[in-house]
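Exercise 7. Predict the joint structure of the components listed below.
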Amino acid sequence: MAAVYPLIFAALLFSVGVYGLLSRRHAVLVLMSIELMLAAVTVNLVTFWAIAGDALLTGQVFALFVMAIGAAEIGVGLAIIMLIYRNRASVNIDDADLMKY
Amino acid sequence: MSSVAWLIPALPAASAVVIVALGRKMPVGGAEIGILSLATAFVLSLVLAVEVFGANVAATTSGVGEAFLHTARVELAPIGAGDSLFAGIRIDGLTVMMFLLVTFVSLMVHVYSLGYLHGDERFTWYYAVLSFFSAAMLLLVVSDNLMLLLVGWELVGVSSFLLIGFWWELKANSDAAIKAFLTTKLGDVGLVVGVVALWGQFGTFDIAAITAMVGDGVQAGGAPLDTGLLSFALIAFVLGVVGKSAQFPLHTWLPDAMAGPTPVSALIHAATMVTAGVFLVARLYPLYSAAPAAQATLAVIGAITLLMAGLLALVQEDIKKVLAYSTVSQLGYMVAALAFSYTAGIFHLFTHGFFKALLFLGAGSIIHAAHSNNLRDMGGLAKVMPTTFATFLVGTLALMAVPPLAGFWSKDEILVEAAAAGGYTGSLVLVVGALGGALTVLYMTRVLYLTFAGSFRGEGHPHESPRSMTGPLVALAVPAALIGLVNLPVEAFQPYAFSAWTMFSLEYWQTHPIAFEPAIAAVAVGLALAGFLAGWALYRALPLGDDDPARRLGPVSTVLAEKYYLDRLWTDLVTRTIVRDTAAPAAVTLNDEVIDRAVAGAGRATVATGRRVYDDVDQRGIDGVLHGLATSTWWSGARLRLSQSGNVQLYAGAMLTGVVVLAIVFAVGEVS
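Solution:
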């Protein structure tokens, strides 16, 4: 069962991402943690595709989709962080509580 | 031509509107519009008369064909039971005869009023109402169904109210107008009942359809005709006739209606208003001939009226009131005549229209000169007012039924028909009619003597009236003298005569020839001569004033002067004693003590209940629930919104927790 190794790897990678998302204060690091979680999902997609052996390469195609969307998301996320920094001179995510009640 | 006959009533109606809108700016204050429209309507009537009468004469001379009849109608609104309200016209001999009479007399009155009302402050309004009155009467005669006829009938009533009370500044005048209006309305109740009853019996308002059904002896749904029901409807109509045509016992409004301007009296008493009732009976004549009970009612009412009013005319001191009672008396002749003969009734209507209009306009001219209505203030006017005297004399002789003037032929015809009909009613009308003729001569002799003979007893210097007043007098004197000749009772002439012009069916004309009885004519003329000699002798031999012979009959003249106490009956007994002293206080007590209290109690209970409901249910209950809901929502919202911290990582943690919980739930579900 060689497939269990990439799955365990993906689970670890996702956990690192979750930890980073919840614990980091720096906005860029939070964004990077999200990327880690997306990467873990990508690994899972490819692994399950390999197990199922789909002729249409669905898993690989979806992996490419996730990467493209992740890149776009990083673009938008970084732009937001840049604007917040310009307005508040801080990238601490605890300071960005404009959506509060 | 008959297709544009609707113009005849429409023209005066339009003129009334135009006069109200523009009259004040016109050089003669709107009178020219009224005169022009009436003159046009009269010319149209003449053209129409040539066509219709010509068609009827063609039928009578050849003995084939049928009486001329043209109808046209537009639907106004459906009223259920498969029937609709229509606005329709019906052109036949009777309609055209009324057209001629109404437009001619109305035209004369329009012209005459130029002088009579010269300088009156409501001159323009007067002409507007005068035109409106003519239009209403023309609508009444032209309508082809009972509903439209009723509308015309009521419009005539309204406009006569306006004209009688034209000088409303005097309380007596406005009282007279109200009295005329209410009295005729009392009769109109009968008319409405009759219209509804006929509709119930025949399922239609259409006069031609009802006449045809009665002719076939059927009613609505093809059932055989119920004569009792028909008699009920027709006697209800008689009540309307009694009100409108001033028959006993509702005639009391008519002498009071003399409060209006004299030309209006001429119009009301000669051509319109009072003839409406007679016209109605003539229009429904085929129905009346199927209901002997209704005919007997007509004969009795007519006979009572003609004798009673003739006696009353004897003691009046106001010249217009003499003429008014004379009109009531003549209307009695017409109503009585219609119990026996269609032609005799409407022929008397026709001739009377001309000579009575002439007499009223003549009286107006006399009043204009003498500045008084009272016969005591006149006298000796023959010399100073030759034109008025000559024309008034012609009118008087026509009314006295002196051959060969108009009144002779028509009144003689009534007596002949009554004699031919025989029976109780026929004999009654014959005897009473002959006596009434003598009475007519007597009271008219009195008027002639007091007005024109002797020397002037009033103040000032009377002079002849202006041309706009004498012109119509002369124009009316011609038909008053000659119109009787159109129905000469000669067999060879009859197919070309009035009876042929106005017939409603050829069969009726053939079976009811107009006859002449030398014996009856001789007796009538003899009685008239006796009346004249008696009158002349009395007034020559005796001084005037309080010694007026008509006042020296002891209790008889008291009864006459009190108008048989009929006015007392209506005003004192009915209005005052019964209504004011008994019924009204009782009604007031009932109103104050019972109804008011009940209403007030119910009102108070309602208010109390309302307050209780408001305080407890509304304010506390419903409002409480709503306020509670709002408060609790606000309170929970205030608590819940604290969770919206704005901290992104807190949200992410909550999401993660949720995912984990869901994952566990699904995993557990999968396993079990």
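Discussion. Strands of chain B lie at 70-80, 83-91.
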